[in-house]
Amino acid sequence: MKTNEMFTRRNEIQVRLSAIADAMEAEKREMTPEEKTEAAALQRELAAIDLRIQASTNVGVQAPTKSREVMFDEFLREALASGKRMEYKIQREAIKTTTTNADATIPVTVEAVMKPLEEGLILNKVGLKLQTGLVGSYVIPGIGAITASVAGEGVEVADSEVTFDKLTPSPKRLAVSVKISNQLINQSAGVAYQALVDQVRAGLERVLNLRMFTCKQSISDGFVGPFKALAAAAGVSAANVKTMAQKKAAKHILFAGETPTYKEIMLLRTAALCKGVEYLNGAYVMDAATAGDLRCTPKGAGGGRMILEDGYIDGMPVYETNYINMGTNKNYVGFGFWGYQALGQFGDMRMIIDPYTAAKEDCVVITLNADWSMTTLRPEAFTIGECAGGGSGSGSGN
After folding, report:
1. Which terminus of the chain faces fewer neighbouring Cβ atoms within 10 Å, N or C?
2. pLDDT beyond 50 at 101
3. Are 261 and 325 found together in one domain?
4. Domain shared by 370 and 261, yes or no
5. What's the whole-model pTM score?
6. 156-191: per-residue pLDDT in tens?
7. Are the beta carbons of 350 and 87 closer than 8 angstroms?
8. Considering the domain boundaries, does residue 120 fall inside one?
């Protein structure tokens, strides 16, 4: 039995002994004869495992002394030495094999990938939590407006209609592949682990941000954020959006110049609010060039305050990403209340170690497969502005 298998079995024994103790305490009784026999056998097995762990690691039985980076390197070398294509499920606490007889545990967890990933998404900017391991649907409420009515004494009050937005996630499989050379694996402890985590996070960050903010019309798989549909809607000049009715109808607003004015920027926000949307994690989205221009553009003639200061426009954070314009020849500025945009990862993440595909390059290919879904709960919570003169239509990164 390998060391990691011994630790796994040791944990299983402790869980079973705890379950017996919980039953005795809950039922206020002594152990049954069957439980005594089982507990004695488990304790003997536990003592034997502890001796084996001490002999093989020369440490105590509390935990391995090796870092997760070193343990991952050793596991990866062991997997490559077997010469087999192996698949693993990344779970909350461990990765377990699904295509071999062993139940190997290696130190890569959901948190190792998802926590740094969250910092590269707009969720972190507006204070939302990235949801992982979902089953069925999102774990957030989608509720429309509730209208209260006032009536005099003795007058029947009509029922208010409460509309619950239908949350129907449609998960799509995202795959991120990382090539790691055998030289890198053997070079030094911890390098392979960090390369895997960093590259997987960066790959997921790129594809999720691209799909969340894209205005590109050729994407037709439904895995997109709120701006694609808004960019496809007919644009209306900002100068013609004056009345309340016009603001309620505005989805795609055309700015007069290449850089939006303070009034035009504020119109994006008020157009959403006029539709009855509550403040819920509001933020602007624009590319880095537009953000740079707004840092140098006064709010009014002769004013000393700029439209964009310290990453905020009138208290609303600004999220910079060139993906909003990628694949188009236009320059967009978006605004939304991002509490109405759901993003979640469903089920297990699956990692495949493939020593064959890139064998000629002396590399191993590690592929992470995961099911993701993004759903716009209230499309009216988002508006988009289009700058005159178009844009570069390209860009990368955040």
Report:
1. N
2. no
3. yes
4. yes
5. 0.71
6. 544 444 344 556 778 888 888 888 888 877 776 677
7. yes
8. yes
Distance CA 229, CA 392 (A): 21
Contacts of 315 (CB under 8 A, 6+ apart): none
**What is the count of structural domains for the chain?**
2
Characterize 221-233 residue by residue with b for buried, 16 or more Cβ atoms within 10 angstroms of its Cβ, and e for exposed. eebbbbbbbbbee
What are the pLDDT digits (tens) for 267-290?
Answer: 999 999 998 888 888 999 999 999
Residue 115 located in a structural domain: yes
Shared domain check, 74 and 24: no
**Any residues with CB less than 8 A from the CB of 36 and at least 6 apart, and which?**
none
Q: For residues 25 and 246, which has the higher predicted lDDT (pLDDT)?
A: 246
The range of the structural domain enclosing residue 294 comes to 67-140+167-398
- Model pLDDT, residue 157: 46
Cα 155 to Cα 133: distance, rounded to the nearest angstrom: 50
C-alpha span between 201 and 212 (Å, rounded):
16
